[in-house]
């Protein structure tokens, strides 16, 4: 879930660990605060950021 405060490096590190565990598909989403009592959104992730993660994931899969 993106938008919860993780840095791009942390997200990429997680992607690498998940791929090392032989996972082929990951789904990313934007965290949306469901009520005023829930954790705040730290960032609204842009479509371009989602595309960067997708491109990186696809490249890492095809490099194997």
TrEMBL record:
UniProt name for this protein: Lipoyl synthase
Molecular functions (GO terms): 4 iron, 4 sulfur cluster binding; lipoate synthase activity
Cofactors (names): [4Fe-4S] cluster
Species classification: Eukaryota, Viridiplantae, Streptophyta, Embryophyta, Tracheophyta
4Fe-4S listed as a keyword: yes
Keywords from the UniProt entry: 4Fe-4S, Iron, Iron-sulfur, Metal-binding
Organism: Acorus calamus (Sweet flag)
Gene Ontology CC annotations of this record: mitochondrion
